[in-house]
Each structure stands twice: as structure tokens, then as C-alpha cells.
Amino acid sequence: MTLLELIVVLIMVSVIAGMAVPRLNYERYRADAALRTVRTVLQGAQRNAIMRQTDVVVAFDVSNNQMQLVEDANNNCQYNSGERVTSRPLEEGAKFAVPTSGYGSTPPTAVFGANMCTMRGFPAIQFLRDGATSTDLDVYLTSSRGVATDFRLVRVTMATGRTDAYRYSGSTWVRMN
Known about the structure:
It is a single chain. The chain is of the alpha+beta class. It has a single domain (25-172), classed as minor pseudopilin epsh domain (minor pseudopilin epsh fold), CATH 3.55.40. It has 2 helices and 11 strands; from the N terminus they run ααβββββββββββ. The protein has helices at residues 3-20, 26-52; strands at residues 55-61, 66-72, 85-89, 94-96, 111-112, 117-119, 122-127, 137-143, 152-156, 163-168, 173-176. Strands 4, 5, 8, 9, 10 and 11 form a 6-stranded antiparallel sheet that branches. Strands 3-2-1-7-6 form a 5-stranded antiparallel sheet, covered by helices on one side.
């Protein structure tokens, strides 16, 4: 190959890449990453509650976009000194937010459950030693731009502690794997 041919190929590749890069939707990937983070934290809390045979509380610090996990040694859904606390932030560019159209009805807050407790001033869900939770839970997430199609939902079923993931298509909530 000559130097001229190599330069022509590099110019063609850079032109094609220049047209493709602006079309990538990074915000959608950030919302998906936030959904996976929340789901992983909730599933990990459930496993810890079962394995350690003690309640584990997950509190949602909505204003700072992070979750706090507390190993509730005395099972009172209150933070006491000596109980282990860990914090997990959402992915960069993601946040808790209330969608314009919720799953079923519009939720009052980004983290919603009928019988949520409060841990350290934040709304919280308690995973019991048998894997169940203290309430059903809906956690709504989105990217920093907050477009309707960027909304994601993690639902937790009270009886089993099972987590399900959904994305908003613009008109309906679609279940994800």
C-alpha cells in the first residue's frame, strides 16, 4: 500500500465515524446502567438477609442519587450504632425521578411503596430473613436529560422479594429481561 492509499482510507473511516457518533444515545445506556445498579443492590440485600438471617434495609437517598444498605442487627428498621452501613451511588448521569406516566398510575415520588419505613431520614425497604420484603416497591430512574423514553422502573414484590425491570417506550411500560 502506498501512503496516499492509506491516507484516503483513514479519511473515509473518519468521515463515517463522524456521521455515526452523534447518533449514539448514551443517555439510554446510562438509564439502563442505573437500573442494573438498583436491581443488583436490591437482590444483594435479599441474599444477605437470607444468608445472615438478619434484616437488611435499603434506604434511598433520592436527592443525592444513592442507596444506603444497613444490616439491621436487631430487626427494628432503625439505624443503631454498631450496625454496618454501606453506600452505593447511581451511575454517573442517572437519577431517581418521577415519570409523567407511572406503571398503572402516576406515583407521588420516585421511590414508592405502600408501607415503607424510614431509615436515617430516607424512604427505605426492609428485606426480611426469609427473603420477603416489608412492602411492594417501585423505583423510577432516568438519565440526566429526563426524556420519557429514558425512564426505567424496578418493581419489588413483597411476598417474594423478586425484582422486575421495565422501560418506558413512550406510551407503555415494557418488561425487560
